[in-house]
Amino acid sequence: MTEPDRTILPLSAPEFAGTANHTLRGSEPDWNLIRHPEPPQGAPNVLLVLIDDAGFGNPSTFGGPIQTPNYTRLAEAGLRYNRFHVTALCSPTRAALLTARNNHAVGFGSVGEFSSGFPGYTAMLPLECAPLPRILRDNGYSTAAFGKWHLTPDGQQGPAGPLGRWPNGWGFDYFYGFLGGDSGQWDPCLAENQKIIGTPAEYYDEENPYYLPDAMADKTIEWLHGVRGQEAHKPFFVYFSTGCSHAPHHVASEWADKYKGQFDQGWDRLREEVFERQKRLGVVPEDAELTPRDDAIPAWDDVPPRLQALYARQMEVYAGYSENADHNVGRVIDAIEELGELDNTVVIWIWGDNGASLEGTVTGSFNEMTMQNGIPLTDEMQLQLAERYGGNESWGGPIMDPHYSAAWAWAGNTPFKWGKQVCSHLGGTRNPMVIHWPERIVEPGGLRSQFTHVTDVGATILDIAGIPAPTRVDGVDQEPLHGFTFADSLVDEAAPETHTQQYFETIGNRAMYQDGWWLAMRTPRIPWVVTPEALRPYAPDVWDPDADPAELYYLPDDFTQAHDLAADHPEKVQDLKDLFWQEAEKYKVLPLLATLSSFFGITPPLDDTDTMEFRGDVQNVAPGMIPRIYNRSYAISADLVVPDDGVEGVIVAEADHLGGFSLFVDAGRLTHTYSMMGVFVYRQQADSSLPTGEVNVRMEFAADAAKPATGGQVTLFVNDAPVGGGRMDHTVPMRFSAYSGMDIGRDNGGVVDLSYADRRPFAFTGTVKKVVFDVKPHLSVEDEQAVHKLAHHAHAAHGISG
After folding, report:
1. Residues 744, 652: contact at Cβ < 8 Å?
2. Where does residue 202 fall: left (phi above 0), alpha (psi -120 to 50 degrees), or beta otherwise?
3. Which residue stretches of the chain have pLDDT < 70?
4. Contact 154/113 with Cβ under 8 angstroms?
5. Based on the domain organization, do 477 and 615 belong to the same domain?
6. Vertex 344, ends 338 and 350: CA angle to 5°?
7. Structural domain total, the chain
8. pTM of the prediction?
9. Are 596 and 619 within one domain?
């Protein structure tokens, strides 16, 4: 069989080489016509594992406090890479990993939730940049992805698509996981292939509760067995991308309890302990220096003793959560070994798509979304809210969506400065990588210190598979790969660096690497502060990036960025600044801070539709696709059929008790519950029961003003008559949830109002004919008068003490 031209995809079908006479007499078939494309001879299986939101100093394999026996097992039989770099943010790293191209060049200058109208920030993969799974699939691989995706724009995560930006559209034959940036591990809203399947049925089994990391491993093993049951030798490419250790930090208590008391010494001492172990392991040079704590992070000794127990539990949960991820990756590796294929499987395991996340703020939070919504939590609030939702022992369970303190993240990035979002410093961009491939790695247990970058992974996989980067796909000329293969380093510790120059940019933070020199340009903004005051200095007519301080490091002599050489080498500072701007223009990084454009009023034009109508049993509407009810007046109305014996259940619900709303019927009365991130919870209920038959119900929110987190008045109506209401002093300014969807006729997964938690999903027992959202409602004069009257006896529970 003639070797096909692999630079053009899809591969051309071979010409018929048999004989076709008028009849079968004398005709000869050509069996090559019905064979699927085959990879080059000897192409190995590939298991690509990506852990989320984790730091260089987290796994024990690299000296951290979290026990990672499976990671260590592969490292001891393979190689550790201690100078591997990512982009400092979730979606950008994933886009670079799966395309072997710089993240801005493929539209992912930021996360998919912040898609904008600038080329480097669209969150839409260009046709000129065919991704790695598509290349492998067209060259004869079976491909599958499990877990976190985060590469589909917010507004495209429904049945209308376009589905080409879902995992199958990127070249995966099979997908099981979640499309957004994070997920609850107990109650995820899942997708399978090109369908949202929502919260799995097992979630409602209290005796055997569902847990996403376990299910990911189960599904991966099931898929591998299915592939091998059909094709004994076809190579596979599995992308196993854990939701761990991104918030919410969800794990069963038995995993967290393994670490009881192990973090009572606090983050300062923990960093020192980790640094000592890193030197003993050799993953950090003996002459390296531990970088100091920034003033933005408190000293452990300054934390009031009454808070230290809560803070220690935060880290215990994070550690147990992370160890569980190692366990489930180990299950997949065991399954490959049981198939007899581990020797011929290249395992590339990256511990973190960015440094550990600083987004929990200094206090940490019982609800990860409080930071994104700009809700500051004081120490006292944190204690009260944690207690409200079950106390320290409930941290990690389904009642909270927790995130640990930024100080623990800083410790997780030992020995470097900063963390996630801060690509100017290694705490945000340098993560552990282990590669295991017994067929090629002849001296196991080694350390590799060549500069490597996330764009290099795809280039290396293609190289070792013997597959060229295509020049043309579906008739479209392709952008060359930006990454460089490091395959030679698998067999040669002294292999030369192939990646000698790389820019970094994340939310205005910048760095330029060239031949060992690293220019760091960090904006003064603290990563976990997104208040208007914090963003004001970065407004379009205010911020001058050249005014940001520049630090210069020579990494071959300074592994941790401990010695700023900028004052000694001003000419090198300027050269690298100039180079950064050249690279920024070349790879579509400009304009800087496009990620924050919506915060400065640069938003896409809204369509002319002021109403959205949902008919029938619509479920699992993605949180980024719900009607735009934030920071304004709006109304929700529903046409119902109420049976003669009455009705109960949810009419429409978004998200859960940690942020969301539900319009439902309880004890026959129309009820509205609104959770402002679980910090303030408001509830209004009608004074009388619903009538039977055809009924229209409506909830109207009259905002005080069109501004973030506006307060306002709620009024409930039945058949246009006001029946109840109350005031809400605060509303959610940005987003209720990162993962929990909106449902018509039920409340899937975690529920908004805990009073019906024991009846979940609390399906409506009548008929919901349609639900309509109106984002421009106007109360009549009569209705306004009724509102004031009802306000005197409205029922509303809110605030810290509510």
Report:
1. yes
2. alpha
3. 1, 606-608, 777-802
4. yes
5. no
6. 90
7. 3
8. 0.95
9. no
